[in-house]
TrEMBL record:
InterPro entries: Ribosomal_bL12_C/ClpS-like. Gene3D superfamilies: 3.30.1390.10. This is Ribosomal protein L7/L12 C-terminal domain-containing protein.
Amino acid sequence: METLIPAVVLAVLGVAMTVSSVDRRSKTIDRRLQRLEHKVDLLLEHLGAAEPEDPAFKEIDALAREGKMIQAIKLHRETTGSGLAEAKEAVERRMR
């Protein structure tokens, strides 16, 4: 029984370290993807070939201007499939 406890503790620590490593890599990949998307957007804008904007974004902008940030973020999430933090950041960025 005494040898089982250290083995369980080691197993739990191993799993925790693996999860932490995967989370860090995921965040790094997310940041790189955001930078790449931004660069592509800049290139498209420079070439005059920007994507047509989804009409929902006009509604998102209107909601944000009216101070209805929660509704704007919710609509952004529904439109893009993004997560909460990403949608909040995107809506705030659109208001600048």
